[in-house]
Amino acid sequence: MDVGTRGEVSPKRVPGSVRPRKLLLRALAGERTERPPVWLMRQAGRYLPEYHRVREAAGGMVGLCNSPEHAVEVTLQPIRRFPLDAAILFADLPQVAAALGQTLEYRAGDGPVLTPPVRSAADIADFLSASRLHEELAPVYETVRQLTRALPPEVALIGYAGAPWTIATYMVEGRGGGASEHAAVKQWALSDPDGFQPLIDVLTTAVTQFLERQIEAGAEAVQLFESWAGILPDALFERWCVRPVAAIIAALKARHPGVPVIAFPRGAGLAYDGFAEATGADCIGLDATVPLEWAAQKVQRGLGRCVQGNLDPQLLVAGGPALHAETDRILRALSAGPFVFNLGHGIVKTTPPEHVTALAEQVRTWTTPARRTDRNNHPGADRSAS
Question: Which of 140, 155, 242, 381 has its CA 20 to 30 A from that of 318?
Answer without folding.
Answer: 155
